[in-house]
User: Which sequence fits this backbone?
C-alpha cells in the first residue's frame, strides 16, 4: 500500500514536509519527531522504506484477556501512558470468548515486528497451559513481561499483586467486624492468582477463627469470573449461613450483592461483601464497595520499565516482583449482628431493597 503523506502527517501530528524528510532519511528532524513519524507508519500499517527498517519498530504488544472487567482497561491506559515518553506505542490485543486467541495475536504482533510484548493475566497464569509458547518468544529473542501470574520456569520479569495477602486482608477485616462464617468466591483454581487467594483465605481463617478444614472447604466456592459467577456462588454460600463473603474480583462482589438482594437481604446489614481490584466506579455503587485495591499504576509502570530495559539490552532480573495490595473500606461491610456472629446461622429475611445501581 502506498503511503499517503497526509495520513501519516495527521497521525504523527506533524507537517507533510516533515514526513517527507523522514521518509527520505534527510537531516534536520528531531529524533522524537522522526520516531513519531515512524510510529505513525507502523500504526497505519504502511511498510517502512528499506533504509529506515530497524528491529525496534516503535510498537509494543499489549495482550489482555478482556475489556468487560474494568481493571483491564485501567492496566491498558496506564501502560500506554507510561510507554509514551519512551517512544513506543502499544498495540492492544483483547481476547473474547470464541474470538482471536492469544497465540493468534502473538503471530500478528510478530508480523508487525513489535519490540516486545506485555501479557496481562494471560496463559502464563494458567497452570494447565503449555508455556513453550513463551519460551519460543524468549528464544527469538523477544522481550516479554508478564503481569499477574508467576511461572518460575520462564526466564522473564513478572509483575504481580500479592494475592495471598489480599485475601488475608479481606478476612482480617471481616473477622474484626465480628464475622465468623466467612465465605470465599473466586475463579477456577487452575489460575495462579486464584490459588494464592485460596491459600491466603484458608491461612487467615485458620489463624483467626476456629473453623475446621472441612468447614473451610464448604465455604469456598470456585466459579466463573464475572457478575453471574459471583451471583451463583453467593447463592450457594448464603444457603450455608455465611454472614460475610470475600470475592476474587469486584464484578464477582457485585454479583454477590445481587444474590443477597434477590433474597430480600440487605448489604451490609445482613451480609458483608469485600471485592478485589478497586476497579473504576466501585466507589459509586450502591452501597459503595469495600474492596482490596490492586496497585495498578505502580504495577503497570514497573512492567513498562522492565520491558524497555529488556528492549534496550539491559536485562531486568528474571524474577517476580510482588506489589502490596491495600484494603479500601467503604459501605458494603459492617459489624456482624450478635446473633449471626455467635451462631453463624443464615441472615434473616428482609423486604428487598432497590436493585444494585451506579450513582450518576
Assistant:
Amino acid at each position: 500500500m502506498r503511503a499517503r503523506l497526509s495520513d501519516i502527517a495527521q497521525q504523527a501530528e506533524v507537517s507533510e514536509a516533515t514526513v517527507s524528510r523522514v521518509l527520505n532519511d534527510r537531516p534536520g528532524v528531531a529524533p522524537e519527531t522522526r520516531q513519531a513519524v515512524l510510529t505513525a507508519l507502523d500504526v497505519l500499517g504502511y511498510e517502512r522504506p528499506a533504509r529506515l527498517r530497524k528491529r525496534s519498530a516503535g510498537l509494543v504488544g499489549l495482550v489482555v484477556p478482556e475489556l468487560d472487567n474494568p481493571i483491564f482497561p485501567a492496566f491498558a491506559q496506564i501502560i500506554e501512558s507510561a510507554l509514551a515518553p519512551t517512544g513506543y506505542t502499544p498495540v492492544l490485543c483483547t481476547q473474547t470468548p470464541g474470538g482471536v486467541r492469544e497465540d493468534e495475536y502473538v503471530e500478528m504482533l510478530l508480523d508487525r515486528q513489535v519490540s516486545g510484548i506485555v501479557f496481562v493475566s494471560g496463559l502464563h497464569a494458567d497452570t494447565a497451559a503449555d508455556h513453550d509458547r513463551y519460551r519460543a518468544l524468549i528464544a527469538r529473542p523477544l522481550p516479554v513481561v508478564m503481569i499477574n501470574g508467576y511461572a518460575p520456569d520462564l526466564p522473564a520479569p513478572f509483575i504481580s499483586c500479592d494475592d495471598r495477602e489480599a485475601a488475608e486482608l479481606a478476612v482480617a477485616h471481616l473477622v474484626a467486624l465480628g464475622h465468623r462464617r466467612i465465605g470465599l468466591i473466586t475463579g477456577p483454581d487452575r489460575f495462579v492468582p486464584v490459588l494464592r487467594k485460596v491459600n491466603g483465605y484458608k491461612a487467615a481463617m485458620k489463624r483467626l477463627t476456629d473453623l475446621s478444614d472441612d468447614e473451610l472447604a464448604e465455604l469456598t466456592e470456585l466459579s466463573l469470573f464475572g457478575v453471574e459467577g459471583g451471583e451463583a456462588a453467593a447463592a450457594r454460600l448464603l444457603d450455608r449461613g455465611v454472614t460475610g463473603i470475600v470475592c476474587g474480583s469486584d464484578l464477582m462482589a457485585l454479583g454477590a450483592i445481587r444474590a443477597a438482594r434477590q433474597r430480600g437481604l440487605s448489604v451490609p446489614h445482613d451480609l458483608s461483601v469485600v471485592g478485589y481490584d478497586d476497579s473504576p466506579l466501585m466507589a459509586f455503587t450502591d452501597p459503595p464497595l469495600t474492596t482490596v485495591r490492586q496497585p495498578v499504576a505502580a504495577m503497570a509502570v514497573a512492567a513498562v520499565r522492565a520491558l524497555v530495559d529488556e528492549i534496550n539490552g539491559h536485562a531486568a532480573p528474571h524474577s517476580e516482583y510482588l506489589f502490596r495490595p491495600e484494603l479500601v473500606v467503604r459501605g458494603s461491610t459492617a459489624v456482624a449482628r450478635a446473633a449471626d456472629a455467635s451462631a453463624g446461622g443464615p441472615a434473616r429475611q428482609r423486604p428487598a431493597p432497590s436493585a444494585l445501581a451506579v450513582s450518576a
